[in-house]
Amino acid sequence: MTRRPPLKQQIAFPLLAAVFFGLALFVLHRLSSTPLTAGFMTGPTNSWQWAMRLASIFLWMSLAFVCVRALNELVFFIFRKRKGYEAPNLVRDIFSLVAYITLLAAILKLHFEDISFGALLSGSALLGIILGLALQDTLGNLFSGISLHADKPFQVGDVITVGKWTGIVMSITWRAVKIKTFQNHIVLISNSSIAKESIEVCPRDGQNARIVFFAALYTDSPVKVMQGVREAVRECENVLRYMTPVVRIRNLGDFAVEYEVKYWLSDYARYNDTDALVRQRIWYAFRRGGFTFPFPTRTLYMAQEAPDNGHEQDAETLNDRLSALDLFSPLTSSELSALASNARGRVFAPGETIIRAGDDGSCMYVVHRGSVDVRVDSNGTPRTIKTLGEGDFFGEMGLFTGEPRTASVVAAEESEVIEIGHEAVRPLFEANPRLVEALSHTIKERRAGLAANLPAAAEEETHEGLIARIKRIFHLD
Ligand code: CMP
């Protein structure tokens, strides 16, 4: 909002002008003593007297005009000092209008004594109708303006959308609301049309949000895309620091995963620039993260069966990972390859449950990338008893003992795990009886760990008992 100049500056010119017109009136009335112009106020008879009377009316009106201006400035200066804020323009205009009309009536009465304004106004029904019709729009605007000032649905500096217009409110007068569009055009919307339309208001000091859309390939990890974009957007200029941007998947489209990022602005009036900056930062975040903006694409699988979407790793990578595990160290390379070709990679988002306590388990997992939390229920709240990282395995207890899952396992971050099913393990036991031994040791250790955290889980089973159980389940004898 523009600041008003100081009072001195505002009333200096009207006061000077008032002095000038006052002097001119004084001179004019002194001149009325000449025989030619004497009596110009009481009923002119010659053209000199008429000229004098018109000049007098003109000077009085000019004097009235500058006096009202000076008075207006003074009154609203006092108002500002007392209330601490600027009086609305509409109130100032009404104040001036009433003062002008009153002084105009007084000046006319001074020069035309015979006129009866009361009779003129009350007696003339026709005049009333004509005035009413002529001022229909003006009065409509005036009353809508009064209601706008009373309701205060928006203020100077807010961004509003009325009909097809969107812009920053520059001023609100008794006739219209002036807005500046984002193409820097000034649009005047009459108060009466504002009263009829629905208005969208984005308050200057409110927490206004914007949503920007973007898309990424299906092969780009959603967790990483969302993380990268969130970090990039929160650093943008004019984005509220204390409101973390929200990145969401809005659709799984034909060619791409479609996202939206919602962010909050400090200065909503600059949302076009900020949207553009956000899109620019998304581009850089994609570049850094190695993500790809999608083109309309079709994937053709030629002379090959479409792969299972859950398979994240090819057999070679799985083989590398499995061969590095102590658990499978007794296996020959061909046994390992057989195991890898029967295993499958699975990817989980942070917080996703891989294994749920109490479920039946027919497979075990090896952490290929990321980390997972082993959680037990402690008086109704989940408690992490162990975090397993790359190369660790889990789910073996359910798989090899045939018992329900002893704990829940949840991805601590985006993680890829290798799933090994019952069918894939059986041939290994047959070829390598030492595996059963190695596994039973791990299971015993983990049972002890569980018992330390969850006394109810303590189970007395001998080493031999456990081995016998595994053999029974896999029909190894
Ligand atoms: P399972 O019982 O099939 O499912 C839950 C899994 O959590 C379990 O197999 C183990 O692999 C794992 N687990 C249970 N207790 C522990 C522990 N104390 N340390 C590490 N892992 C565990």
Explain what you see.
The chain has 477 residues and is α+β, with helices and mostly antiparallel strands. The protein has four domains: 7-115; 150-202, Roll (SH3 type barrels), CATH 2.30.30.60; 208-289, Alpha-Beta Plaits; 315-473, Jelly Rolls. Helix content is 47%, strand content 20%. It has 15 helices and 16 strands. The protein has helices at 7-31, 47-83, 89-111, 117-123, 125-134, 136-151, 191-196, 222-234, 271-289, 315-323, 333-342, 396-401, 422-431, 434-453, 463-473; strands at 159-162, 165-172, 176-181, 186-190, 199-202, 208-216, 246-252, 257-265, 344-348, 353-355, 363-369, 372-378, 381-388, 393-394, 408-411, 415-421. Strands 4-3-2-1-5 form a five-stranded antiparallel sheet. A hairpin with a 3-residue loop joins strand 2 and strand 3. Residues 306-312 have low confidence and may be disordered. Bound molecules: adenosine-3',5'-cyclic-monophosphate (CMP). Adenosine-3',5'-cyclic-monophosphate binds next to strand 13, helix 12 and helix 14.
